[in-house]
Amino acid sequence: MLGPVLLAAARSDSIRRVVSAAPVTKPVVTRFIAGESVGETMPVVQEMADRGLEVTLDVLGEDITDPAEALRARDAYLRLVDALKPLGLGAGAEMSVKLSSFGQALSGGHDLALANVRTVVEAAAEIGTTVTLDMEDHTTVDSTLAIHTELRETFPQTGAVVQSYLFRTEDDCRILAAAGSRVRLVKGAYKEPATVAYQDKAEVDKAYVRCLKILMAGEGYPMIGSHDPRIIAIGQELARRAGRKLDDYEFQMLYGIRAEEHDRLAAEGHRMRVYIAYGTDWYGYFMRRLAERPANLAFFLRSLATRG
User: Fold this and answer.
1) How much is the mean pLDDT over the chain?
2) Active site residue 58
3) Under a CB-based contact definition with an 8 Å cutoff, are residues 235 and 251 in contact?
4) HSE (CB half, 13 Å, CA atoms) of 109?
5) Which one of 134, 137, 205, 281 is the catalytic residue?
6) Contact partners, residue 231, CB within 8 Å, separation at least 6
7) Torsions phi, psi of 77, nearest 5?
8) What is the pLDDT of residue 304?
């Protein structure tokens, strides 16, 4: 039952200060965070490409408090585009954005986030890549999907993320599984109330499979965001039943988790994309990674004990 506690801690400024200041924390964080700057991260991107892996890049930051911070987040992604350009990886290195970092939660935030992310999507298109809109807590879903719809009018390759633990997601999948769409399906990593989301892991897993069936049967491009061996096997079988070729869907996993599985799937001919996060504002992302899998928390606690 530690998961909900960790998810609550992800939004706690007091716990953030304690964890961030602890000298034992940073060496552990580097397992999940590729670097603090774009310069530190590009060698990791190139290494992944050399191993036959694709990537999606997330400049860490969320819950910003003023429009100036939103502009700084936008500009960080524009610097990322500039750094990716000489690598020539095209869609092999796309970007993931959280609209909260672009001002979505501010007054007039929907329009502000749309304007900021549109600039990034335009820049990404110029180097032959694209952007996927990460999904955050349930209060942002309508705004995020509306922005996704508007962006796709000009940039149809723009991706969206949906979370199986939300009751609404099966209906969202039916709408999104249209020709040309790109949809990443994940289980969900925010603390949500029982009025909108499944609380039991088994129910979340069942909902994931139902959603994946919808996406695989649709005309879009499913992106299977999971480290769960059972989900991976089910995804392969559903793709086979739907008559999909290996390049008609992809797997996505987080940097630092099950790296051997990344290589195994790529060696079998699957498209395998690694979600790489970087930046100095790593706390919320890191805490959600601990909450998602007991193995992550055990790794962190062992590191605290040995380094202490």
Assistant:
1) 89
2) no
3) yes
4) 21
5) 134
6) 205, 208, 209, 212, 224
7) -70, -35
8) 46
Phi, psi of 241 (to 5 degrees): -65, -30
pLDDT at 76 over 80: yes
> pLDDT for 215-268, tens place per residue?
999 999 999 999 999 999 999 999 999 999 999 999 999 998 899 999 999 999
Q: Max CA-CA distance within the chain?
A: 53
Alpha-carbon span 126 to 178, nearest angstrom: 25
Q: What's the pLDDT band for 115 if we cut at 50, 70, 90?
A: very high
Assign 281 a pLDDT band (cuts: 50, 70, 90). Answer: confident
Please give, one letter per residue, the 3-state secondary structure of the chain: CHHHHHHHHCCCHHHHHHHHHCCCHHHHHCCCECCCCHHHHHHHHHHHHHCCCEEEEEECCCCCCCHHHHHHHHHHHHHHHHHHHHHCCHHHEEEEECHHHHCCCCCCHHHHHHHHHHHHHHHHHHCCCCEEECCCCHHHHHHHHHHHHHHHHHCCCCEEEEECCECCHHHHHHHHCCCCCEEEEECCCCCCCCCCECCCHHHHHHHHHHHHHHHHHCCCEEEEECCCHHHHHHHHHHHHHCCCCCCCCEEEEECCCCHHHHHHHHHCCCCEEEEEEECCCCHHHHHHHHHHCHHHHHHHHHHHHHHC
For the entire predicted model, the pTM comes to: 0.87
φ/ψ (deg, to 5) at 37: -135, 165
8 A C-beta contact, residue 174 and residue 151: no
Among the listed residues 152, 182, 184, 273, the single catalytic one is: 184
C-alpha distance from residue 162 to each of 16, 26, 143, 174, 224 (Å)? 27, 30, 13, 11, 11
Nearest to 296 by CA among 2, 56, 12, 53: 2
If phi over 0 gives left and psi between -120 and 50 gives alpha, with beta otherwise, what is residue 297? Answer: alpha
Query: Is 134 an annotated catalytic residue?
Result: yes
Report d(CA 88, CA 50) in Å as an integer. 13
